[in-house]
Write a structure and sequence with these properties.
266 residues; Rossmann fold; 12 helices; 7 strands
Length: 266
Amino acid sequence: MPTSVRELYEVWSGDSELGDELARSLEPRGVDWLFDAFRALGPSPGDVVLDAGARDAKHAIRLVSELGVRAVALHPLPLHCELARERIAEAGLSDEIDVVEGALEALPFDDASFDWIWCRDVLVHVDAAAGLTEAARVLRPGGALLAYVTLATESLEQRERAELTAALALRTLDAAVLESAAGEADLVLRSIDRLGSEWREAMIEEASWRAADDLLQLARLRRREAELVERHGAAAVDAAAGGLTWGVYQLLGKLCPTVYVWERRA
């Protein structure tokens, strides 16, 4: 039965114990956990890691620095490749990390070239079947792919999905589609971790992200949307709205960051 007005206000006026419980941290896993998860897979010094979608190579740099592996930082945009080279040079790791321009769906590497693949925030933007088939091809038998990907939940409404998909160039938001593509690529599922809101909770608790700031900017954007579109263009405004909404939707359970580990059959 629906809550009555009387019951509602009795709850709001008296349930301090529930408020106290909600004020306590659930000790969420933060972003560093992903590196711990990769380390737990057992990479050895000298192993070769493909950072697929490396952007400025900050993840490749950390993997090489902490684990003693070698890496290839792959990105489809020349600008990001140049930024990656600059950052790698600043870290003194130009001999340990190569930068290659290319896309996950058509990897410019020989078969069985890599021991590991690190793939963060990429699979949502590519054709999952093509990308995972290529990943399986360049992995050595027994090698593994760790993929961090944010997926839709049942709470994400169709209009919200359509707006995000258009604004953020998304192609794959469904777990079933991704998991089916991995199976077709002959990748064996080793583990799934559905992080849900954990990273965002941790970011708020450690003060590295302020959800209130994103909500405030989103409110300002909506109030001035027509003016901002005229000045900056619809694509820029839509991308800003999508980016500001992304983390909030994770907190609300509409999007679920998920970590897969797939292994190539030996």
